[in-house]
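Example record for the data management plan.
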Amino acid sequence: MQRNLVQGLKLLSVGARSAPRYFSTVTRWQNPRRLLASREKVHFAAIRGMFIQTQETPNPDSLKFLPGRDVLGTGNTMDFPTMGSATGSPLAKLLFRVEGVKSVFFGGDFITISKAEDAEWGILKAELFAVIMDFFASGLPILTGAKPNSETQINEDDDETVMMIKELLDTRIRPTVQEDGGDIIFMGYKDGVVQLKMQGSCSSCPSSIVTLKNGVQNMLQFYIPEVVAVEQVTEPSDEVAEKVFDSLEKHLKVKEKD
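Corresponding structural encoding:
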């Protein structure tokens, strides 16, 4: 799937006539309702009248859960990299209570959950299915004190280059990345370098750098000659959260041995 994403972005970057048709094919191939005829591994859970599918992502530690209904609505996303960041979402808080869950990401009609490396999906999925089903049956709001990412806002003081970057991200790049259970957020542009933040399954994916360099960077450079490079950035709070999670994980392992 990662290869398809990069190839699709490459086609757009060279302006190939077949790019729109290729992207339509990729979207259909990745559509969970059509995956039975593809190579994708899809799992189902139907309990109490609710039907949930799971779809693999390029990141082996991230899995997409598709509840068959809107989560945040088309084009909207919300990233919860730590339990502390989930204060504005009752659903995210419940998912973090499942042992082994490392981060949570909401998309338009899906939930991406990333696990610790030593956790097993075979054990996690049953509990995650139950949490998601119970929550949607409760009728509670998914977000209470948080606003999702929607289309990248174009500001009055943005120059023409920045406006073009944001437009390409929203129309050509973000929808494709969201198909893989993640998102790319514009963080800044300076001296020809576009700064982007990876979220969801993309944030810790081993091939995220390949996606940025071979896909996103090539496309932006084709349409916007001023772009000389694309780099992935992280916020200080993300690095701190990663260290805290690793420390907690080691502490729990020590307790288990004792």
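Summary line stored alongside the record: The helical segments are 2-13, 19-30, 90-96, 121-138, 160-179, 208-223, 236-257.
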